[in-house]
Amino acid sequence: MNLTAVKDENEIMERHIEDSLALIEPIRSSYLEHCGNSWENLRIIDVGTGAGLPGMILAIACPGWRVTLLESINKRCVFMEHVAGVTGLLNVQVVRDRAESLGQHTEYREVFDVAVARAVSEMRILAEYCLPLVRVGGLFVAAKGHDPQEEVRQAKKAITLMGASLLQTHPVKSFSKYGQRTAVICLKDGPTPRKYPRDPGTPAKAPL
Fold first, then answer.
1. Helix/strand/coil percentages in the chain, nearest 5
2. Which residue spans traverse the membrane (predicted)?
3. Whole-prediction pTM value?
């Protein structure tokens, strides 16, 4: 279905599956330390999940998690629904929409324990996509490369405007040949102002 440029099975395992699995430990440790006593029954949203990475992998590995896969492109949603059906996953919900629209939807706004995003956009845009969906006291976890410090620095204003703060940049154990990975973790300190997220397309065109 041309969902990813990577075709080789071993490379898919290294570049996509292992990278996705590597997010579990920073989510677990950060949530237990800052958000609650239990991490087995989290409600998670994967923003811009694409082919279900990392959300579908997290749902398989952590069956107690309730995972919402947010994607705006229909063929990717059809693929993920097929995968969920074939594997018998009951803890996955596929939602076809844009993050800017979902963030203003009462059913989804500020209800998730954790929002994750991988290979979607730069941090200052991701903050506006993801943090309006996270409950106060929850986490936003962005999967980034080996040196995201400048990108994170530029995103601090956007993170603050969304009612959050930068918690830590967590080195991620990855066996991928693409090198060290980093989980950028933000804590939602207070509610996001109602004007965010802005209209679809605006965050990418005019980052905060």
1. 35, 25, 40
2. none
3. 0.92
Residues in the chain: 208
Rounded to whole angstroms, the Cα distance separating 124 from 208 reads 6
3-state secondary structure of 169: strand
Q: Which of 75, 82, 121 is nearest to 99 (CA)?
A: 121
Name the nearest CA neighbour of 44 among 36, 33, 54, 34.
54
Domain at 9-205: CATH code: 3.40.50.150
Give pLDDT, residue 18: 83
Residue 52 near residue 69, CB atoms below 8 Å: yes
Name which of 76-80, 111-115, 171-175, 186-190 the model is least confident about.
171-175
What mean pLDDT is predicted for residues 21-30?
93
| Share of residues in the chain with pLDDT > 70 (%) | 89
